[in-house]
Amino acid sequence: INNMTRTHRIAVIPGDGIGIETVAATLRVLEKLSALENFSLDLTHFDYGSARYKSTGSYTPETFPDELRPYDSILFGAVGDPDVPDHISLWKLLLPMRQIFQQYVNCRPVCLLPGVKACVNTAATPSDLDWVIVRENSEGEYSGQGGRSHIGTVGETATEVGIFTRFGCERLIRWAFELASGRPRKLLTLVTKSNAQRSGLVLWDECANRVAKDYPDVKWDKMLVDAMTVRMVRNPASLDVIVCTNLHGDILSDLAAALAGSIGIAPSANLVPDHSAPALFEPVHGSAFDIMGKGIANPIGTIWSAAMMLDYLGEKAAAARLERAFKKALADGATTADLGGELDTEGAAQAVIDRL
Ligand code: ATP
Ligand code: MG
């Protein structure tokens, strides 16, 4: 039996705030699931985050990419602290990691679920909103290139340079077309702003034109990001796979999570399609200091992210089993207060365990 047990090495970074609580709850679910599905997770905890920064002056050790590289995946909670500027928490860990490990696909499924009240105006059949947002995650507007001059003077100037490479755009768009061609409706919408941004986004559009030729079965269109916000709200059923640049994807995926009902359940995967470095799985929500320590955070966003991690690791049966269990828990109303339920974080995780 032991020889047949598959082992996956997981780096666990709970981070700050409710990330610590939702990751702990998720690990309890994974422990039970691994026993049922005959795989094992070799977990190593890392203390990266704002508490470490406040006590030692550094968010992570300098060598953090070397420390994390041996792992198959990273399960991440959230970082962010009212006492630490947001650009520090992002640039000390998450954004460099996406670039160093080339986690170039950020994948966020968004769908209507029984038991979750959606904000969107629909007849409430699941097909009314069933999207995967595919966001470029390694370059674009968050490339970190730019600078400031004449600081403190009236002539102060800052540049924020978006980097778009044909290599980077094509690989991401190809991944999205591949995904779309495997989905029932085979639709893809490319989000752009090439009317106003005339270099990077024009290249982005051209890459889509080129890649689309390889996927004649996928019906696709292009949409300016401003018009896209309207379409997401007014005509959600017309969308399936949504491909965005780094900045647009950041914004649209929060809108999508809100439309579908709750930021507390939204999952996110930062994928390395060739598995050459660890991928990272995290809930869409942040550290939410307003509810930290109360034990009321919804763990489903982290649990769903863990299901995506299992799928990426090849544990397809376990991933599907976990997804069925948390969807059943939501449908049964076995949820936390943000969804109108009465359970605390541990209770909501237990409700998932009971349904595995
Ligand atoms: P960030 O700065 O990363 O956006 P944040 O601390 O602002 O993080 P968000 O994740 O943006 O927090 O969440 C906004 C609010 O939504 C939180 O303050 C909290 O009240 C609520 N919220 C977020 N996640 C959850 C959750 N898992 N369960 C319950 N409520 C949540
Ligand atoms: Mg926020």
UniProtKB/TrEMBL annotation:
Its cofactor is Mg(2+); Mn(2+). SMART domains: Iso_dh. The keyword Transcription does not apply. Pfam families: Iso_dh (PF00180). It comes from the Eukaryota. Keywords: Magnesium, Manganese, Metal-binding, NAD, Oxidoreductase. Residues 9-352 form the Isopropylmalate dehydrogenase-like domain. InterPro entries: ICDH/IPMDH, IsoCit/isopropylmalate_DH_CS, IsoPropMal-DH-like_dom. Belongs to the isocitrate and isopropylmalate dehydrogenases family. This is Isopropylmalate dehydrogenase-like domain-containing protein.
